[in-house]
Amino acid sequence: MRKMSFLLMLVLLVGGLFACSNSQSTSTSTNKTEEKKEEVASEPIVIKFSHVTAPDSPKGKAADLFKQLVEERTNGKVKVEVYPSSQLFDDDKAIQELPRNTVQLIAPSTTKLVSYDPAFQIVDMPFLFTSDEAVYKFWDGEGGQILSQKLEKYNIKVLAMWANGEKHFTNSKRPLKKPEDFKGLKFRTQTGKVLDEQFAALGASAVPMGFSEVYVALQQGTVDGQENTFNNIDTQGYAEVQKYLTVSGHGRLDYLLLTNTKFWDILPEDVRKTLEEVIAEVTEQQRKWSEELNRESYEKLKASGMEVYELTKEDIEAFQKAMQPVYDKFADSIGQDLIELAKKANE
Ligand code: LMR
């Protein structure tokens, strides 16, 4: 009997001690989780924003304004790191990295999204869009919606369309006034079959290449020319290595501001709301900068010593005729519906 009660006491004692130490360790781990939660909440959310143009380009200035406004308005909850001039990634790499969340914001030229869907080459259809307003109307409306949906399955969300404007030709060999003048020349292109065909239709060839490599390729004569906006031609210093500028406005170079959908969806509600408000504000300013800075850059290029030729109405008609094969080959893969929406936006 005595033996039994001794054993019982022993069991109760050991059990009590175990329960005590167990509850202690549970409360310690609860404290740790709480601490961790606090730590996470007090750590800023970091947004890496990678782009390829100069800080004083319309895109570069907009990225910096976005950083400034977001950091001011979230009281340190969000930190934006802007990497201009391909410092972090070139466009192709950035487009691959975004769905992996190694970068949270990018603003590539819409052409570069051809790796996701050929319809993004609509901007390269020769002489399709006739004004900045038409471009804004297209992207802010049904055209933009149709194209944005094409990125959803890749975990990419379109936040806004930013502008840079019309493309023009430069080259180092001769003035380009008529389609025949392009024969045998090599042009750097961003990417895509539409641009390959555009130059093939002119008897020239296309050499796709990352933006950061273009200056050296022009300087070393790897290519004879390229096509870009006044502001990119100016801020990249192409006037130093290209003698001739043809003002053609034959295609567009605009951007989509993109984020990683999963990253975006788990942001705290108030933060996401602030970011959306800032994006709306910056987008308005970005488009104004695009118009203003391109006008200023054109004046600078004229003063730089480049020989400038502005295509006349008749010249443009000759180019439209020469470039018709681009429509014959690609209108279907880009989508007649999108081409019609672009034409409607011109009205
Ligand atoms: C280019 O590669 O020429 C452009 O996409 C660069 C840019 O972002 O304006």
Which structural traits does this protein have?
347 residues, alpha/beta, D-Maltodextrin-Binding Protein, domain 2, 2 domains, 9-stranded mixed β-sheet, 13 helices, 51% helix, globular, disordered N terminus, binds (2S)-2-hydroxybutanedioic acid, TRAP_DctP, transport, TRAP_DctP_sf
Gross morphology: globular
Average per-residue pLDDT, rounded, comes to 91
List how many beta strands DSSP finds: 9
Strand content: 15-25%
Number of domains: 2
Q: What's the main sheet like? A: 9 strands, mixed
Rg value: 28 Å
Q: Helical region count?
A: 13
- Series of H and E elements: HEHEHEHHEEHEHEHEHHEHHH
Structural class: alpha/beta
Protein name: C4-dicarboxylate-binding protein DctP
Family: Belongs to the bacterial solute-binding protein 7 family.
InterPro entries: DctP_fam, TRAP_DctP, TRAP_DctP_sf
Keywords: Signal, Transport
Q: Can you describe this structure?
A:
There is one protein chain. Helices cover about 50% and strands about 20% of the residues. With about 350 residues, the protein is α/β, with parallel strands linked by helices. It folds into 2 domains: about 45-120 and about 130-165 and about 255-290, D-Maltodextrin-Binding Protein, domain 2 (3-Layer(aba) Sandwich); about 165-255 and about 295-345, Bacterial extracellular solute-binding protein, family 7 (D-Maltodextrin-Binding Protein, domain 2, 3-Layer(aba) Sandwich), CATH 3.40.190. Strands 1, 2, 3, 4, 5, 6, 7, 8 and 9 form a 9-stranded mixed beta sheet that branches. α2 (about 60-75) packs antiparallel against α10 and α4 (about 130-140) packs across α13 (about 335-345). Mean pLDDT is about 90; it is low at about 1-40. (2S)-2-hydroxybutanedioic acid binds near residues 164, 228 and 253.
